From TrEMBL:
This is Splicing factor 3A subunit 3. GO terms for cellular component: spliceosomal complex. GO terms for biological process: mRNA splicing, via spliceosome. It is found in: Nucleus. Residues 120-198 form the SDE2/SF3A3 SAP domain. Its main location: nucleus. The gene is LOC104941000. InterPro entries: RNA_Proc_DNA_Dmg_Regulator, SDE2/SF3A3_SAP, SF3A3_dom. Coiled coil: none annotated.
Amino acid sequence: MSAEFDELMKARDNPTEEEQNLVEFSDEEGYGRYLDLHDCYLKFINLKGAEKLEYISFLSSFDQLFDIPKDRKNAEYKKYLEMLLEYLQDYTERVKPLLDQNELYGKVLGEFEKKWENGTFPGWPKETSSALTHSGAHLDLSAFSSWEELASLGLDRLKSALMALGLKCGGTLEERAQRLFSTKGKSLESLDPSLFAKNPKAKGPKKDTERNKEIGFLEAQVYDYIEILGVSKIYICIYLSY
C-alpha cells in the first residue's frame, strides 16, 4: 500500500501537460483524480443532531445516507444534499464531459419512482400512516335493506362506519343512518362531495410525504454519481487526507 500511495502522491504532484490544460481543479482534487469534499463536510457536521465526525470518518461514510435517521432529514439536511449533489455534478462534468447528465437524470428518476412506490428505496421503507387513513370501522351494507335497519345499530356504530368512509358523522340517529345507507352500492368517487367531512389536517401528511420524496430523490442522485465516479476516488481521497 505504501508503494501505491507514493505513486498516487507523485501523480498528484506531477500532472501531465494534457491534464493541466483540460479543466481547472483544486489542489485537493489532484487534476481530477480525487474528490474534495471539505466544504460538504463542514456543512454536514453543522447540521442539527449530526455526529461531529473527523473528516476521514466522513469520507468513509458520507455515501451511506440510508443510515441517517429520518427524523434528522429536515430542510437543513436537504440543503446539505443539494450542496453535495451540486459538487458531484460539477466534478463529473469536469472529469466526464461526454456523459449526458440529462439522460442520467431521467434514468435515475425512473428507477427512483419505482423503488419509492414499492417502498424499497434505501432508508425510506413504505409505511402505513394512521394520519393518512380514516379512523373508524367499515360496515358491510349488503346485509341491510333500509336505513331503518341501520338505525338499529345505534349512534356510535353509525359514526364509526361513516368515519371509515371519510363522511360527515354528526347529526341525529336518522340522519346518520340515511347518510350511510345512501352510499350502498356506490363508489366513493360517485358520492356527493357535500357528504364528506372536511379534513384540514390532511394537507400536513401529504406535504410531509412530498418533502420526503424530494429528499429521497436527491439521495438517489447522489448514490448514482458516486457509483459513476467509483468508490476508488473516495478511498484515494482518504489516503491523501492523512
